Amino acid sequence: METGKRQKVLLLGIGNEYRGDDGAGLLFTRMIRTKISGSVTLKESQGEGGALMEAWQGYETVILVDAISSGAPSGTIMKIDATKQNIPAKYFRFSTHAFGLAEAIELARALKTLPENLLVYGIEGANFSPGNEITPSVERSVKRVVKEALHELLSRSANDASLSPADSG
Amino acid sequence: MKSKTIKVDYLARVEGEGGLLVKVSGKKVTDVKFNIFEPPRFFEALLRGRQYSEAPDITARICGICPVAYQMSSVQAMEHAFGITVDGQLRALRRLLYCGEWIESHALHIFMLHAPDFLGYADAIQMAKDHSPIVQMALKIKKIGNGIVGLVGGREIHPINVRVGGFYKLPTCQELETFVEPLKWACDSSAQTVKFVSKLPFPDFERPYEYVALHHEREYPMMNGRLCSNKGLDIEVPEYENHFMEEHVSHSNALHSILKERGAYFVGPMARYNLNFDALTPAAQSAARSAGIGKGTNNPFKSIIVRSVEMLYACEEALRIIKEYEPPEKASVAVQPKAGIGYGCTEAPRGILYHRYRLDERGNILDAKIVPPTSQNQKTIEQDLREFVPPRLHLTQEKLTWQCEQAIRNYDPCISCATHFLKLEIDGNAGEGGKCEID
User: What is the ipTM, given to two decimal places?
Assistant: First the structure.
């Protein structure tokens, strides 16, 4: 990252709040909302691939949070630097003709339209059935991801005053 | 006797979970199974006891790519049961919403799911590396379709603004006008798409299909019309079950639908186009003629051209509706439930979607029947493979499997509705090194 450059930062939560732990990404944006300064943009998405590519357009730094289903213990956090690693599509399940988060990131990589910095947090869910309750272990992990994201913003703000979180809480 | 097995355990680039098995003995195909193993979803049972007003939102959940079709067929059935007519600008807005769905669904299938087959790429991501402008264009067209669904439908995926009798909220003229310039661009881009896909290499394959689609005297069919075919079917929608039946086959969790008199039939863009060419706009007709398909084609691989022509039509039609839009006084007409049976059939991007509901005097759903397009095409898909494979047995297993998958994707099957990334695994009777055994 260039020192002194004003970064456009996006925090993007993905999910469906009515399908149990699938709402983890949305819980992330709602928890972090009061802890960041106005220069950081918060968005929520249902996870349709085209909409995601649209959502991150124009941002240099994007932190993206979504629920995953990999078979790991619930609450397990998978952190992926998407500018360096491919996204395992099988963990980010989304069925609208198989064009979800993983496909959107890989397509953007092929098109050379990935944000300069793209960090993906996947939080392992336990329950994706109808209802808006989040499993306690998943909720604890969302809180951890909030802390980590704030830490990321802080470390980046060393190079850019506009990114200072309001409260590193 | 030489035998050969083409087996795809998990079809990619289709919506939902399905597989393919083709068995060949000598030069004859002995078995074809388009295997849908996506679990049954029991929506028809789920609807029992629910209010008529819930049907559009419940059935929209059947599919993430064609929820508008479910909403349109369900409201049409309810309105039929209650004797309500929704016309004028409310009808035009519903047609606009449907145009949005056709645009997004067709753009996705043409470029991201089907074009890689013709160009020799495993998926759209690989294709994007060499054809970036085409893929960028596809995403932009799709976004416009999504935007229309988002504005008129209230949400891009699983819209929530459609109700029996009309809508909950009407868009303003200003909101609709934001789509005028993007749609003009999309018309030009769709015309370019027709040219682009017309140059793809098409396998030489035709069959004497029976095409079934809605036919309307004044417009290209989306929401209204008689159910017609090129082999004499010409009925009103409520007569559907007199002529069509569903049957269970052991290898599929989706019922197979057949015409009682003649068996398999073909629904979707090819059927609509072959039965309704004259109702297309002059620009769409002209693009189709330049693409070499004239007033009709019997080569299902050319469905990619037909979808592109329909995408052009949907963009033009959306533009027309927006230009002529005058906000109605009310967002919906009054609805008074009554006991009876209601029938609805509209043209989902993949073909006719039939709904029938029996209701009590308070509008509670007593029973429901839903027949989606993919279940209607299953038998035709299997018959295609039976005839497509024998003249191509000289091809390598890899090439033949690829083309079989491509043949399935001609139908843009939606397995979640009844089934897109087709991923193949070849089981060649356990030959050495994973190769197909021919003995």
Answer: 0.73
According to DSSP, residue B171 is labeled P
CA Rg value for chain B: 21
Please, which residues bridge with residue B369 across strands?
A: B356
pLDDT, one tens digit per residue, over B203-251 is 999 999 999 999 999 999 999 999 999 999 999 999 999 999 988 877 7
Structural domain count, chain B: 1
Q: What is the DSSP letter of B422?
A: -
B252 within some domain: no
Q: For B173-196, what is each residue's pLDDT tens digit?
A: 999 999 999 999 999 999 999 999
> In this complex, which of B109, B136, B420 lies closest to A111 when CB atoms are compared?
B136
Which domain CATH number covers B150?
1.10.645.10
Domains and CATH numbers, chain A: 9-163 (3.40.50.1450)
In a domain, B119, yes or no: yes
Residues of A in contact with B421 (CB under 8 A): 98
DSSP-derived 3-state class of residue B214: strand
Q: Do A50 and B126 touch (CB under 8 A)?
A: no
DSSP-derived letter for residue A23 is G
Angle at B59 between CA B54 and CA B65, to 5 degrees: 135
Distance from the Cα of A121 to chain B's closest Cα (Å) equals 22
Size of interface A-B (CB pairs under 8 A): 57
B111 lies in some domain? yes
> Alpha carbon B197 to chain centroid distance?
19
Contact by Cβ (8 Å): B164, B87: no
Interface residue B143 vs chain A (CB under 8 A): yes
Q: How confident is the model at residue B433 (pLDDT cuts 50, 70, 90)?
A: very low
pLDDT band at A50 (very low <50, low <70, confident <90, very high): confident
Q: Positive or negative, the Cα torsion across B63, B66, B422, B127?
A: negative
pTM: 0.86
Hey, is the C-beta of B129 within 8 angstroms of any chain A C-beta?
yes
Q: Is residue B313 part of a domain?
A: yes
Q: Which residues in chain B have Cβ-Cβ distances shorter than 8 Å to A99?
A: 108, 112
Structural domain containing residue B177: 43-209+281-292+300-370
Q: Are B308 and B194 in contact (CB under 8 A)?
A: yes
